[in-house]
Amino acid sequence: MSSRRRFLVGAAGAVGGGAFGVLGLPGNAVAAAAATGTVYIASDSTAQTYNSRYYPQAGWGQKLSSFLSSNITVANHAIGGRSSRSFIEQGRLAAIHQVIRAGDYLFTQFGHNDATVGNPERYTSPADYKEYLRNDYIRATRARGATPVVVTPVSRRSYNASTGKFNVSFPAYVDAAKGVAREEGAPLVDLSAASRVYLDGVGVEGSKAIFLWLAAGQYPNFPNGVQDNTHFQERGAVEMARLVSRAVAGLGLPISGEVVPGVG
Prior knowledge:
alpha/beta
């Protein structure tokens, strides 16, 4: 392990077994108890909360509380331009770990910025990304008695006309997230797959109403319009949050019973 890697692990806090193999494992017996607590979100601009100056842009983390009961609080720490590595380097994960408690959850979704090879402040190789998820987001969270939930990176509006399907966005990072969740026995929300199925259903033209595709003059905050294949307008953020909550309902965790009825 490099000295840089040791520093980053330390910055996120203690790494160890803690409730390892207990809190993260699905099981209907566990889900029988009513859940209370906070869902912390560590992510990027696709999950970020945006103020009214950006309307109608929104992130899925901004809308997640609509699909959870009042027993659950959502603390959305997602912020644009961050990768799994830079979120740690800037102390953002440490800030979550200072306040997270037993019974809480950490939902982690990265990959979009990790894959930006041309930006050294963000770029994180798939192998390093996997180890950050393992040590800093999964193990260090469990050491605090909380439950880590790995979320694969949500799909971009990347359409393959020859197949009539949307492409897998950031496949190496999707595979790494799924792999580390399997190896660590951590709950997984495969938002990559779920969002792709959803986008295939609405189609390439319909997906413009999901992503931030706006005509000039349509919204005051985007007077010149925009064609953004990564970020969501409000409808898209709501639908992505619905997909996340639907997956959570099937995890067999205490929070699974707090997903509001009808999201399936």
